[in-house]
């Protein structure tokens, strides 16, 4: 099959491109490079021996999308492209709705116009919001508590309505928990611009000397050690989940939502300790007050993906930290090196 | 003040344009005329002695919006434009999300770029969905049960996040119940294209001979006579609610949501009987099974609009029917006559 991967030069995108190539698919990448580097695709080519056609196209450009869909014949789309910083989304929500929601509507219109009606969408555990207790199950009502999460929720609703209206559409909504780690080669990984929003990239930058110390927001949660619990998933496992979802859609069609997580959580201190083991020394940290909107525990009920896709995570927290550290150590400034 | 009214040639739009002119405002109308006629604005001009600048612009055309905002200096926008048929929205949801949601995002971006940060938005009681019991109160969680309602819900969320991010924005979300009736002159009114989706226009077309009989969907609801209860609001009262909301925003700013309804409901048979009185003869009807998604009772808690805006409805069901019938009788084929 030929798969269009939007946002395919980004962190999860590039790992999924690699997994698709290894599974024997043809892949075309579109990305606006606003938070990604073409260097990631050069390295995927180096790892696989296959070059990936790249198009610099923005979701907000309907003509560019039309040209892209005219220039290739796609069987399916894996749609990663979008803004993803929770804090920023509260500051510039209109930009988030414009790029994520209106951008996805443009993509779906282009797909429909060109007869491509299969899509795997990057949703997020953020859609569960703060009204439920972990483990989160797919049937729970959505209720994101920030604009970023609401863009994911709106796109899920749009895709669900689209699938209900026209059975030619095949749709997978994948709710990611906390993707971390990197390909074991250390050649591709997460390269956040500015101050990292997520825990492991921040720890990695502390370890490599780019940040002074880790701030831990909240040590008085009702958890094993007082710090927040999240469900970390190795990006290589996550990429495999996309290939599995794509295969399922090809065989069965329909509209589906699956959590992609380990089904178990780790605390901030547990992650920090595991990362310290990978690095081989203690890393500096400091406790700070809880952040508004953060919940104590978030982890998946991962049983639906196992039952439907035969997919589950395979990598341990130590492997996540070792692989993340190998990438960071070899590429202290990400792809800018 | 100078007010841009999107969808200003439509049913509620044209009545609101009239009310704004009567309140001494300058008005500019944009409309794509997909479900409206410029004739409505000619008649508003005839009733008021003032012509209204009209621009045929579509919400999905960002360049057209930019030209419009460059050619006038607006103080506020009243935003009616959008698709509005519940049944159709389940058939072509992508078109609804494209025109309503992505279209509104384009409008908000144009407003922001031109420094116009005051908006009164046409929301709907549909956002309450079927998880609550009437009377519906603004603080209830939204949960629309059809794509049309979800477009309203998504736009409410976008506007709420926008207002929270930037206090320069003033935002009123008006949740209409069931607008009916027409201006007492009989010169402007509702002119649905195709088969009417709503009760009173359907009855009116039966009365004028364009439809054979009224189908009443469900006569076994737990209501006074078994037929569904809705909160009917005279369109002239509704238009006055928009002027009141605009005045409130100008004085106070902020983000607000108000039900615009009578606070009391009428059954389908009560409406049919009132319309029959207005026409002066019995009108044919037939019972049919309930429609999926319909609820037994929907009516507003109208106390917030009274407390905040000093606004409440003034017209009786008989007046609604008399005014609606005058319009229909004088214009049996709407503006096409």
From TrEMBL, chains A, B:
Gene3D superfamilies: NAD(P)-binding Rossmann-like Domain, UDP-galactose 4-epimerase, domain 1
Cofactors required: NAD(+)
Pfam families in the cross-refs: GDP_Man_Dehyd
UniProt domain NAD(P)-binding: residue ranges: 4-323
Keyword Lipid biosynthesis (UniProt): no
Family, similarity comment: Belongs to the NAD(P)-dependent epimerase/dehydratase family.
Subunit structure: Homodimer.
Protein known as: UDP-glucose 4-epimerase
Organism name: Arthrobacter horti
Upper taxonomic lineage: Bacteria, Bacillati, Actinomycetota, Actinomycetes, Micrococcales
Gene name in the database record: galE
């Amino acid at each position: 099959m030929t798969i269009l991967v939007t946002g395919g030069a980004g962190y999860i995108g590039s790992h999924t491109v690699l997994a698709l190539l290894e599974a024997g698919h043809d892949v075309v990448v579109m990305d606006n490079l606003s938070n990604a580097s073409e260097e990631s695709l050069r390295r995927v080519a180096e790892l696989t021996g296959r070059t990936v056609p790249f198009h610099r196209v923005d979701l907000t450009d309907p003509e560019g999308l039309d040209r892209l869909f005219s220039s290739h014949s796609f069987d399916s789309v894996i749609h990663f492209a979008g803004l993803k910083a929770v804090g920023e989304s509260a500051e510039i929500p209109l930009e988030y709705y414009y790029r994520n929601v209106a951008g996805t509507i443009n993509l779906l219109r282009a797909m429909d116009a060109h007869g491509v009606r299969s899509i795997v969408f990057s949703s997020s555990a953020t859609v569960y919001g703060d009204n439920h207790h972990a483990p989160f199950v797919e049937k729970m009502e959505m209720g994101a508590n920030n604009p970023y999460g609401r863009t994911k929720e709106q796109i899920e609703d749009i895709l669900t309505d689209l699938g209900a209206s026209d059975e030619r559409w095949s749709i997978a909504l994948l709710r990611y928990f906390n993707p971390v780690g990197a390909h074991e080669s250390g050649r591709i990984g997460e390269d956040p611009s500015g101050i990292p929003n997520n825990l492991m990239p921040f720890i990695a930058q502390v370890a490599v000397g780019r940040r002074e110390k880790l701030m831990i927001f909240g040590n008085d949660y009702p958890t094993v050690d007082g710090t927040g619990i999240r469900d970390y998933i190795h990006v290589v496992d996550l990429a495999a989940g996309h290939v599995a979802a794509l295969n399922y859609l090809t065989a069965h069609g329909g509209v589906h939502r699956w959590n992609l997580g380990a089904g178990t959580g780790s605390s901030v201190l547990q992650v920090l300790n595991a990362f310290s083991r990978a690095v081989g020394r203690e890393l500096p940290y400091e406790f700070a007050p809880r952040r508004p909107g953060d919940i104590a525990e978030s982890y998946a009920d991962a049983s639906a993906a196992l039952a439907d896709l035969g997919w589950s995570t395979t990598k341990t927290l130590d492997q996540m930290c070792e692989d993340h550290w190998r990438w960071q150590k070899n590429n202290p400034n990400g792809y800018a090196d």
